[in-house]
């Protein structure tokens, strides 16, 4: 039995509470996952999981096993990094990002993957924060302050966004001049952590919060972008989505004297002593890509 593989499988089963989910994440079949867990239990002479037809739960021995398994795997990854330093990062990394940033990174992915032929990347588009351990995510980009003290975070840059609308919408409803005018307009929001019924703008000196009544709420920025292009209302869009359409005339930059408040762009990852080389490579790629864009590189001020 490969004890390292068995420990990795056990941890993923414990994190997902599912043999099938662990199998999917580890690129194994469900019977293979079950065999590894059974072999590990036989090796340790201890039952690690309670199994029923409808549920899966850790035993007391399984609970005690988790921190020990993590320490073993961290040590193995650190040893592996010693050999990878010369040959480059290798393995799979799961990266979660907001959709606009994911599109931005996708345009730069070919060069990065060519640089690391042994590395594979799973790119997840998510607007809200995840349970990194439960979801098996190595790195996640979050917009706004990070309040979870159990996570390590690194500031990468700042958002730049625009309030925009299609010419057809403005032809029907008129052009808002100041934030208070938005209360009488159709607004399109995307669901994310916080109050999506409050938009915040800056006049260069102060932040100005405005309570709106959304006509449409979507769970992703891409849907908001498409609805805005179709003339459904006003929206706040990342420069990544908005600028090409502003330049082409498909969207109009509204209230240029009141810019949407900028948010910090942070990358978070589990609080572990040793970050694997494969994860460090993706982290550096994120930082370099964002620093290459002057609208994200600039400081809040």
Output the keywords.
301 residues; D-Maltodextrin-Binding Protein, domain 2; 24% strand; 3 domains; 12 helices; 5-stranded mixed beta sheet; Arc Repressor Mutant, subunit A; single chain
Provide a descriptive summary of the structure in words.
The structure is a single chain. The chain is of the alpha/beta class and 301 residues long. It has three domains: 83 residues, Winged helix-like DNA-binding domain superfamily/Winged helix DNA-binding domain (Arc Repressor Mutant, subunit A); 105 residues, D-Maltodextrin-Binding Protein, domain 2; 100 residues, 3-Layer(aba) Sandwich (D-Maltodextrin-Binding Protein, domain 2). The strands form four sheets. The protein has a five-stranded mixed sheet. A five-stranded mixed sheet has the order 11-8-12-7-13. It has a three-stranded antiparallel sheet with strand order 10-9-14, with no helix packed on it. The longest helix is centred in the N-terminal third of the chain and has 28 residues. The termini are far apart. The mean pLDDT is 87.
